[in-house]
Amino acid sequence: MSDYDTETPVTSDNFELQPSHPDINESPENATVVSTVVSTFEDIPPDGGYGWVCTFCVFMINVHTWGVNSAWGVILNYYLSHSTFPSASHLDFAIIGGLSISQCLLIGPIVTKANDVMGTNFTLLIGTGLIFTSLFAASYATEVWHLFLTQGICFGIGMGFTYLTATAILPKWFSTKRSFSSGLAASGTGLGGLAYNLAAGRTIETMGVRNTYRILAFCALGSNLISSLLLKDRPRSCTQPTQRTLNHRDLGHLEVLLVSVWGMSTDLGYTALIYSLPNYASSIGLTSQQGSVAGAILNLGIAIGRPLVGYISDSYGRITISMAMTAVCAVLCLAIWIPAHSYAPLLLFALLTGTVCGTFWSTIAPILTDVVGLNRLPSTFGLICLTLVGPSTVAEAIALSMVGSSGYLSAQVYISCMFILGAICLCILRSWKFYEIEKKASVEREGSVLDFPGYFKWMRPQKLFLLGRV
């Protein structure tokens, strides 16, 4: 549990503020105590209220960052099918898509510093401007390196300033509804992807790829601008300073390392899956429009699944449900995607897999809060994002290289194995959480932790399958 979850709310029953008392008015020590208690009282998450406005703002930011970015799968399929840039290889286009995600994650420390120096709203406005500039400039690209700079690097940096800032804000507004609100906001990725996959596929056919980019640019500008102005951060208590500086030694902690490996493995699978599906549709003889519909259905599944997964995980355990959903995604890839050689099975796979394939992005903030606490969330989240830079950059490149050498079967098995690895990491993390709970109970019962065994002595195969809510 985080520090937030263990705080005792200050009410009129257990604290009475009397400003007229001479000791309070005249004593600096008492004044400090009063201000500390009031600050702590103000720091209790409202679990609603303006938090729902912030949830909607983060939802819209996801629609117009990740949702817009997912349209790259449709644009990529167009470039691959029409040889728009004859000198560019499949690998070049794959790296462009990976760059947009990796740059978003790479600038995590810069975003954290910008929030401290310039404030939340100004940081969001910087990201909004960069996203518009990147998409509008991409419409004038005549060489593939223009896309590297615009669609890849500039868009990714803009997405980092908006998405990372918004993601770190939302958990501060909720406690018991933290996973549900995060899942609801994260569903914007799916709805945005659904809308923009269909819209991009249609506008490319009727208006061309250049006008498609310009439409995306202005849509993102309008929505992100409004969301940036409405989204508000909550102040932390002066008695509980937030850890802002990245500390690479955090990766030496088993629990943080497990979260990191879970993120890297599922990111390799998720990125390759969401970018490859439209092109896979073309490879089995479907039209480009059918491929864009398959990508849209995948995003529809994301929109349905993320709030549902968040709601269930608040009730049955965030680590447990995330582990189960990651494992289900691996099973779906093996059982449905591999034999899907026609339109109907592919749409079924896209819908079912969409509900579970992006579990990491919808639950990472609540899980990290449970693992390290709210105070360490910004710095640890930034560190986790840095570990995802490499996998995000090469994910689609690895998949396309496999497709080019031995067909889609090897890529499908590879993507499945990545989700299996992620599920294993969460299974071990779940065992670690039970260990921490038992150790804390032992300390409270006996007053000492000296006789409690270390984790690796404590862990047994049966401990990986304990029943309980974590």
UniProtKB/TrEMBL annotation:
It comes from the Eukaryota. Its main location: membrane. InterPro entries: MFS (IPR011701), MFS_dom (IPR020846), MFS_trans_sf (IPR036259), Proton-linked_MCT (IPR050327). Residues 8-17 have a biased composition (Polar residues). GO terms for cellular component: membrane. Keywords: Membrane, Transmembrane, Transmembrane helix. One of its GO terms (molecular function) is transmembrane transporter activity. Residues 1-28 are annotated as: Disordered. It holds the Pfam family MFS_1. The chain crosses the membrane at residues 88-110, 122-142, 148-170, 182-200, 252-273, 293-312, 319-340, 346-368, 380-403, 409-429. Residues 255-470 form the Major facilitator superfamily (MFS) profile domain. It is found in: Membrane. It is a multi-pass membrane protein. The keyword Transmembrane applies. PROSITE patterns: MFS. Belongs to the major facilitator superfamily. Monocarboxylate porter (TC 2.A.1.13) family. This is MFS general substrate transporter. It comes from Aspergillus sclerotiicarbonarius (strain CBS 121057 / IBT 28362).
